[in-house]
Design goal:
By secondary structure, this protein is mostly helical. The protein has a single domain, classed as NAD(P)-binding Rossmann-like Domain (Rossmann fold, 3-Layer(aba) Sandwich), CATH 3.40.50.720. The protein is 45% helix and 7% strand. The protein contains four helices and two strands; from the N terminus they run H-E-H-E-H-H. Strands 1-2 form a two-stranded parallel ribbon. Helix 3 packs parallel to helix 4. The longest helix has 25 residues. The radius of gyration is 16 Å and the shape is globular. The relative contact order is 0.17. Belongs to the short-chain dehydrogenases/reductases (SDR) family. Keywords: NADP.
């Protein structure tokens, strides 16, 4: 779940955990120093955090996304099983990472528009592609 430490991501994550889901959360490098605090504030009230796996990831970097998904695969998917039905593949990808700006459209610099596209479209695409590669 890219963006799983944020408000929307943690709300969705809490609901999924109530239904028995294990979570793999990708968090941005700028959140690294506050990872534990954000994890506790977003998920701590629901109890034990042992079923939440976290991976630092710049979703706008193909290398960073692939490294995070490689780590996720090694940690969560049982590579020793030869039967695909016995491997614990993630079944759902929820992209909640995003960039928001409150600038007026007529005064926003072009770089801000590029940031919107890079994070909200390109980042989503990179994460979706990496997730789909896990499924094959």
């Amino acid at each position: 779940m890219p963006g799983g430490l944020g408000g929307l991501g943690s709300s969705i994550g809490q609901k999924l955990r109530q239904q028995g889901a294990r979570l793999a959360i990708l968090y941005a490098p700028f959140e690294a120093a506050r990872r534990d605090e954000l994890l506790e504030s977003g998920y701590g009230a629901s109890g034990n955090l042992d079923d939440i796996y976290t991976y630092e990831c710049d979703i706008t970097s193909p290398d960073s996304v692939q490294a995070a998904f490689n780590s996720l695969e090694k940690e969560l998917i049982d590579p020793s099983s030869s039967s695909p039905s016995k491997r614990a593949f993630p079944s759902l990808l929820i992209n909640t990472a995003g960039y928001v700006s409150l600038s007026d459209m007529e005064t926003a610099p072009p770089e801000e528009t590029l940031m919107h596209l890079t994070v909200n479209l390109y980042g989503l695409t990179l994460c979706s592609q990496a997730f789909l590669r896990l499924r094959h």
